[in-house]
Amino acid sequence: MFRKLPNIIVTGTPGCGKTSHAELLCEQVKGLTHINVSEFAKNNDCIDGYDKERDSAIVDEDKLLDALEPLACKGGLVIDWHCCEIFPERWIDLVVVLRCNNTMLYNRLTKRGYKESKVRENVEVEIMQVLLTEAKDNYDENIVIELASEDVDSLDENVSRLAQWVENWVKDHPDGIDTSL
Ligand SMILES: Nc1ncnc2c1ncn2[C@@H]1O[C@H](COP(=O)(O)OP(=O)(O)OP(=O)(O)O)[C@@H](O)[C@H]1O
After folding, report:
1. N or C: which end of the chain has fewer CB within 10 A?
2. Which residues take part in binding ATP (predicted)?
3. What is the whole-number distance in angstroms between the Cα of residue 90 and the centre of ligand 1?
4. CA–centroid distance, residue 21 to ligand 1 (Å)
5. CATH topology assigned to domain 2-153
6. Cβ(75) to ligand 1 under 6 A?
7. Does the Cβ of 12 fall within 6 Å of ligand 1?
8. Model pTM score
9. Closest Cα to atom 10, ligand 1: which residue?
10. Nearest CA to 84 among 1, 143, 162, 159?
11. How far is the centre of ligand 1, averaged over its atoms, from the C-alpha of 16 (Å)?
């Protein structure tokens, strides 16, 4: 099977704007499919318990990858999750790491009603650039890009840039990519 569209990961600390970016990109570029991993895992029986301390579901990563594999082989996925290292390198053409100013992130998470400990933990993750390091450690640095997601203008600019990148990828891969390799 050949995939004719790239697969993109949109990652970043919770509240950075992954879902906002992924949704808008999929609205603007025909053929792309938004995979909100938390929802996808729930809908595909890939939940393996609940982490009370973190107040979040535990995803069974093996089951998740099995469920995603056929879709990843078709291509055109925009994978939206706060973790990127589990996705095989052969699936992924671009890793977008969204970054956000600490005060803004604090306000966004507080507005969501997150408890103080969860807000602090996530702001620290952002300060320590945890997601950027994870992306660079697990994928070729040439496919990892860092984008600021701080206001509506930056959201629009980022999405236009990503849409242009997809258009260029398609032109550069007229026969697609062989997913059996
Ligand atoms: N670039 C931006 N400009 C203005 N508001 C933004 C921007 N990005 C995100 N937001 C706002 O921040 C909040 C969190 O955004 P979003 O749900 O897209 O983040 P997320 O990274 O997907 O979070 P999670 O990992 O928890 O799902 C939303 O209220 C959204 O409207």
Report:
1. C
2. 15, 17-20, 112
3. 28
4. 8
5. Rossmann fold (3.40.50)
6. no
7. yes
8. 0.96
9. 17
10. 143
11. 5
C-alpha distance from residue 113 to each of 67, 107, 108, 121 (Å): 31, 10, 9, 14
Kindly state the tokens that stand for 106: 């604090």
Return the domain boundaries, the chain: 2-153
* For ligand 1, atom 2: residue with the closest CA: 151
Which of 10, 13, 16 most suits a substitution to test ligand 1, by most atoms within 8 Å of the C-beta?
16
Backbone φ, ψ for residue 71 (5° rounding) = -70, -40
Query: How far does residue 175's CA lie from ligand 1's centre (Å)?
Result: 35
